[in-house]
Amino acid sequence: MSEHNQEQHKPHGETGEQQSNAESKEQSARLEREIKENAAEARDNREHVPQLEHKAKEEALPTEKVGVSEHGHQPEPSTQYVGRELKNMTLQRTLTRIRHKLSKPDKTLSKVIHQPVVDAVSRVGEQTVARPSGVLGGAVCAFLGSCLFLWASRHYGFRYNYFLFFLFFVGGFAIGLVIEFMFYLARRKQIVH
Predict the structure, then answer these.
(1) Structural element, H or E, at residue 9
(2) Angstrom distance (rounded) from CA 178 to CA 122
């Protein structure tokens, strides 16, 4: 393989120290080939050997430039941190892979749901709207309020209004959030004192 082809087949992403080590190895190999070729041509002519050795020493890289440590250990590779860009790339690849397995309507729905705008609104909603204490408070109030209202409507003879279930749920949701906020304030005061 020629020297030009060897340079083209270097792995991408090497560090500067790894490149200088690779360059020095390539240079050493090239110089050894030159020495062997010249030595083969002039076996009987011993006066060329000191010149070739001198030439090899001139072209050799100093050890400071190569970066070999005293112990001969290679430096450990640096750890790469996962950033937002890498997470987004992974998400897009995963979504693409999964969408290939979905039916046409499901693919369309997946594309709509995973738009950045819809995803951002969903993330805000999951942190504020769907609080577990609010949902629990709304469910308990809706159940108890509906039961009480159903008993009253049967006992006093008026029609049951289904809209009241929604109002009981909203009221219970608000009560659940208020209770959660009060627990938060009480816990915060205990931590401060």
Answers:
(1) none
(2) 23
